[in-house]
Amino acid sequence: MASPAVIVIGAGPAGIRAAARLVEAGLRPVLIDENERSGGQIYRRQPAGFTRPASALYGSEAAKAVALHAAADALAPRLDYRPGTLVWGIADGAVLTQRGDRLERLPYAALILCSGATDRIMPLPGWTLPGVYSLGAAQIALKAQACAIGSRVVFMGTGPLLYLVAWQYVKAGATVAAVLDTSPSRRRVLAAAALAARPAVLAQGLRYLAGLRRAGIPVLTGVTPLRIEGHGRVAGVVVSDRAGRERRVEADAVGLGYGLRSETQLADLAKARFGFDAVARQWLPETDADGRSSVPLVYLAGDGAVVRGADAAELAGRLAACAALRDLGHAVPEEEFSRLRAALRPMSRFRQGLENGFPWPGHLAAMLPNETIICRCEAITAGAIRRTVAETGAPEMNRAKSLGRVGMGRCQGRICGLAAAEVIAAARGVPVEEVGQLRGAAPIKPLPLTAELGPDEG
Amino acid sequence: MKADVIIVGGGLMGSATAFFLRRRGLSVILLERDLVGQAATVASFGNIRRQGRFLPQLPLANLSRDLWGRVPELIGEDVEFLASGHLRVCFRDAEIGRMEQYARDCAPYGLKLELISRNALRDRFPYLSPEAVMASYSPLDGHANPRLAAPAFARAARREGAVVVEHAEVVGIARGAEDFVVETRAGTFRAPMVQVSAGAWGQRLSAALGEDVPLTPAGPQMGVTEPAPYRIPEVMGIHTDVTEEGVYLRQVQRGNIVFGGGRRDAASLDTKRATLNPLNTMAQMPHLRRLLPAMAQLRVIRTWSGVEGYLRDDIPVMGPSGVTPGLFYAFGFCGHGFQLGPGVGATMAELIATGRTSVPIEPFHIGRFAAASSTPPGPQRG
Amino acid sequence: MSASGHEAGLFRRLAETGRRPVRLWVDGQPIEALEGDTLMVALLTQGLVLRHSEFGDGARAGFCMMGACQDCWVWTEQGGRLRACSTTVIESLRIVTREVPWPALP
Questions:
Q1: Using one digit for the tens of pLDDT, what is the confidence trace for A118-177?
Q2: Which of A125, A349, B63, B302 could form a disulfide with A197 if both were Cys (CB 3.0 to 4.6 A apart)?
Q3: Which residues of chain C does B298 touch, with a Cβ-Cβ cutoff of 8 Å?
Q4: Chain mean pLDDT for chain A
Q5: CATH class of the domain defined by A5-118+261-354
């Protein structure tokens, strides 16, 4: 068997740039990606046979998307590239992969995790109805399938993606019924200084907002989401507006999301140490400035380490590869490190501005009616979680899961974990960092019982 | 703080003992290092299985089975016990004889097993493997929820008046003139009697008290599938001498299939964590498919382990100390303690309160290691 | 059945409607999708449901569309399982959203 390769997980902006840097150093890394085509979520490609130009798919980011795809395609022959492949476990210095019914165990010399992010979700009554999707889903439907999630769509939540997706829908000819933002607009004023760290990105955001207003789309800020109504499908969204008045918007679909949360389960399986990140309001793997985790030869880059967006992910991917190369004994010029670190600095500042401008509304968890489903896999309600805490004294997430099933289902708490933590914290009257985080376990996604190790494995 | 009895270790054994001691009117302090039921109990498969056990353990197992049936009335909480039957299935003709022998041997203990072969097996349990050559069916066995059991017993003990102290790791036990003095991170406790029911950590305490035992910590390799309609009432396991083949499974009423068996993996008394090695999950899958072919349609959604204590002879330490009056042990249940839990609690409470037990527990006495004589045969699995 | 914006479905097609049609079967009824559709889009441009929650709280039609939430697993008639958001449709696929093909009690 050949000596272990450097393995990069995730072929989005961070993973592609990490793999490219490793190839530059003369290595042939393994690049594993769950999607069939590289690009990640942000630069997700449409299937073969679709004809829209990059400008229609990626708007102002088209040039970056095209460049990244070209880089990935050029790189592919120089990699051990494994698309459509799930990494479901990490054990004893090897990753465990699954594609169809085939399992493999791949030892690594170093491991660079570029696992990306998913939407941060605060449930509300009705959010499991057909027609309610994450903002990311709404965007994927459009970008990768040329579909709108409904005929009359409400976008609700907070964060830059809220406005971006709404604007993309308008441009694509969909009907957007309203944009409902939980963050009051004064938060953006307070965060303006930090947001100015990336003036072009800030300006873009303002353009989306102006475009929505021009198109006559109602944009409400500072709302409190109350419920999504409907029987068997979405019929409308009810919020309480800034003045405390109840407002109902007719709609047959809702795009819901409150910023992004890092996908950290693989870092957990790699036994990386986590700390509570007060900005993200999430437990994140600890890294140094270059992406080294607490575990030797395990690195993190991109939104899976900390959500700073695609531009930062490209830089961080390259930087993590530089760190891995240096740790493996390859010469990497100090100048490259300092250049990448410097380029990432404003991104970190901007991230703080975004979190301040569009804060995670954790406080809403305390107000959710008891019948609200929190864990959609197991259909565990806010009331059931509160009862578990009250009757059993469950002080933290894993105990609440063990005794009350929250986060125990197919997604392993990926979707409900942050909100469940807020419900538990509110029920106990403690800060959310005191209720801990769900421990990760293999398989991080459902593993078919038919799967088997290949004949040369084991 | 002082009581009649201090119990060190709040797993199922300690929690059940605390409950039954209160029922007998003794005052009890239950000391748990972390949270009740978090180490071995929570990771247990949840099997309420008597068949296949070490024969001298059957009276205790029978007592425990009766108590499982009465858990809701005893403790006022449901821990999802279902007497839905237990099947041990074998795939080799060579194993039929052993299965028949066990069914004959356990009958005098009051355990009636039904042996079902080939075609009859397929008629009765059509979802079972067509390759199965024989199954031994124990209709009154079943399963319960191991995540709920110990906390439920501890809550019941507390309702009955026991003092349950969590986050009370024991740092020292000494025998004073009249009482044991138990020093913990949550204060000092005194009692004339102490029970050590600290699972895999039991050996550290017994050794400190002058009675070392050959115990190895290990972690079972557990997993669960996504839910499917509830159609498989029986707990089932493969009866085999080949470790890897010895998988077992049960469908819970919510629909998920919980499984375990095969190889165990390392567990650490210091980190308090047991390793779930995903390679073991992979090794379990073909045997699970063989036992229950429809399971191939499902997906594994979660795996876990927990710290269990295994004695060299694969049977627990249970009974009075061989050297120190007032000291009792109930630990090291070698991965087959869950079914015994209520019975152990009732029997240890009886022993502590009266000095006698209504079911024989001599084979489990800690003195068997001091004697260093021949080791008795351990239980069979599945 | 029209490929563009059939009102009976959740999703509405906005573009790329010139692709080759693909026929599949849902609960025994034929539906027409387009080559390159994910199974989710194929089902939800013409229907409202992918699956029913195992715990009785109603119909589900997926949520994240990126393989994270696991709320769009559907059954094939043969008892196979497909994650609708990350499976591309193929001709003659037979999906069930109602009856789960799982062993019956004797």
A1: 999 999 999 999 999 999 999 999 999 999 999 999 999 999 999 999 999 999 999 999
A2: A349
A3: 81
A4: 96
A5: alpha beta
- pLDDT at position C3: 38
Thinking of the domain C21-96, which architecture would CATH place it in? Roll (3.10)
Which of residues C6 and A16 earns the better pLDDT score? A16
Mark B213-237 as b/e (b = at least 16 C-beta within 10 Å).
Answer: bebbbbbbbbbbbbbbeeebbbbbb
Which residues in chain A have their CB less than 8 angstroms from residue B297's CB? 449
Q: Could you tell me the pLDDT band of residue B33, with boundaries at 50, 70 and 90?
A: very high
**Number of cross-chain residue pairs from A and C with Cβ atoms under 8 Å apart:** 141
Residue A2 predicted with pLDDT over 90 = no
Amino acid at A70: A
**Which residue ranges make up each domain of chain A?**
5-118+261-354, 121-258, 364-435
Q: Does C104 touch chain B (CB under 8 A)?
A: yes
Sequence-distant (6+) residues with CB within 8 A of A378 are A405, A406, A407, A408, A409, C55
Give the residues across from A133 on adjacent strands.
A255
Instruction: Report the chain B residue with the minimal C-alpha distance to residue A446.
Output: B301
CA dist., res. B296 & res. B365, Å (int): 44
Put simply, whether B291 touches C (Cβ < 8 Å) is no
**Which one-letter amino acid corresponds to residue B231?**
R
Residue B374's pLDDT is 43
Determine the Cα–Cα distance for residues B87 and B251; give it in Å rounded to an integer.
13
Mean per-residue pLDDT of chain B: 95
Residue B373 pLDDT exceeds 60: no
One CATH from 3.90.550.10, 3.30.450.20, 3.40.50.2000, 3.50.50.60 for A121-258: 3.50.50.60
Predicted TM-score (pTM) of the model is: 0.95
Inform me whether the pLDDT recorded for A458 exceeds 60. no
Read off the amino acid at residue A317. G
Q: What is the pLDDT of residues A286-335, one digit of tens each?
A: 999 999 999 999 999 999 999 999 999 999 999 999 999 999 999 999 99
Digit-coded pLDDT (tens) for B233-276? 999 999 999 999 999 999 999 999 999 999 999 999 999 999 99
pLDDT of B169 strictly over 60:
yes
What local confidence, expressed as pLDDT, does residue C4 receive? 39
CA pair distance C36, C16, nearest whole angstrom: 10
Q: Across residues A375-400, what is the average pLDDT?
A: 95
Q: What are the beta bridge partners of residue A99?
A: A102
- Identify residue A133 by its one-letter amino acid code: Y
Locate the domains of chain C by residue range. Answer: 21-96
In chain B, which residues have their Cβ closer than 8 Å to the Cβ of C104?
A: 231
Strand residue runs (E) in C1-106 = 12-13, 21-26, 29-34, 51-52, 59-60, 73-76, 81-83, 94-96
**Does the pLDDT at position C104 exceed 90?**
no
Chain C hits for A445, Cβ within 8 Å: 67, 70
**Residue A153 at interface with chain C, using a CB cutoff of 8 Å:** no
Subunit contact A446:B299, Cβ cutoff 8 A? yes
Q: Tell me the domains of chain B and their CATH numbers.
A: 5-63+146-214+312-369 (3.50.50.60), 86-137+216-310 (3.30.9.10)
* Optimal mutation site among A147, A262, A263, A450, interface C, most CBs of chain C within 10 A: A147
